[in-house]
Structures are given as structure tokens and as C-alpha cells.
């Protein structure tokens, strides 16, 4: 569903509620997700899967399973465009 940067590790939250801890940089994770349009960056600390996005407003997004991700200043407009582009193309 999403990936969160935690210092030298990346925490990947899966749809079944489990978590994976990867020893990798966020840049490396982003590179692996580059070919999948449903994965988008939210600031420098998160990658989210748009399929699991429940709601989006100017300061936060809600994911399935109850996870809330607060948006960095200025990121709402770009994320909203990515969200609508993804669903219009699908």
C-alpha cells in the first residue's frame, strides 16, 4: 500500500496489514517502482499506491486500513493531478 522512509531503512506496509523492513535507500525503492504508474512519491519520505488511497485533501491522505499520511507543503496539487490521471487512464 505504501512505503515510508525510516533512516537507513524503508518500511513497506502491505495490504494484509503486515510490514516489511528493507535496508535500501528511498531512491532505490523509487527506481524499482518507476514502471508502475500506481506508485507515486509523496514528498521525500513516502511512496503510495494510488489503488489503496481512500481520500485526499490539501493536508493529508487516508489509505485503506486506516493509515494517514500528512502531505508536505505544496505537494497536494501534484498528487491530485497524479491521482486523477491514474484513474482516468485506467
Write up what this structure looks like.
This protein has one domain: LytTr DNA-binding domain (OB fold (Dihydrolipoamide Acetyltransferase, E2P), Beta Barrel), CATH 2.40.50.1020. The chain has two helices and eight strands. A hairpin with a 2-residue loop joins strand 1 and strand 2. It is 24% helix and 37% strand. The mean pLDDT is 90. The protein has 90 residues and is α+β, with helices and mostly antiparallel strands. The protein is globular and about 35 Å long. A five-stranded antiparallel sheet has the order 3-2-1-5-4, covered by helices on one side. A three-stranded antiparallel sheet has the order 6-7-8, with no helix packed on it.
Radius of gyration: 12 Å
| Helix and strand composition category | alpha+beta
- Helical segment tally? 2
- CATH superfamily placement: LytTr DNA-binding domain
Spell out the blueprint of helices and strands.
Elements: E1 2-6, E2 9-13, E3 19-22, H1 26-33, E4 39-42, E5 46-49, E6 53-56, E7 60-63, E8 68-70, H2 76-89
Task: Summarize this structure as a short list of keywords or feature phrases.
90 residues, alpha+beta, OB fold (Dihydrolipoamide Acetyltransferase, E2P), five-stranded antiparallel beta sheet, three-stranded antiparallel beta sheet, 2 helices
Task: Give a nutshell description of this structure.
The protein is α+β, with helices and mostly antiparallel strands and 90 residues long.
Amino acid at each position: 500500500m505504501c512505503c515510508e522512509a525510516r533512516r537507513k531503512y524503508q518500511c513497506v506496509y502491505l495490504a494484509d496489514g503486515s510490514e516489511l523492513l528493507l535496508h535500501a535507500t528511498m531512491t532505490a525503492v523509487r527506481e524499482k517502482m518507476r514502471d508502475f504508474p500506481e506508485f507515486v512519491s509523496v514528498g521525500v519520505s513516502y511512496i503510495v499506491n494510488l489503488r489503496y488511497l481512500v481520500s485526499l485533501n490539501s493536508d493529508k491522505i487516508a489509505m485503506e486500513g486506516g493509515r494517514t499520511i500528512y502531505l508536505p507543503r505544496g505537494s497536494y496539487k501534484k498528487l491530485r493531478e497524479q491521482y486523477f490521471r491514474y484513474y482516468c487512464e485506467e
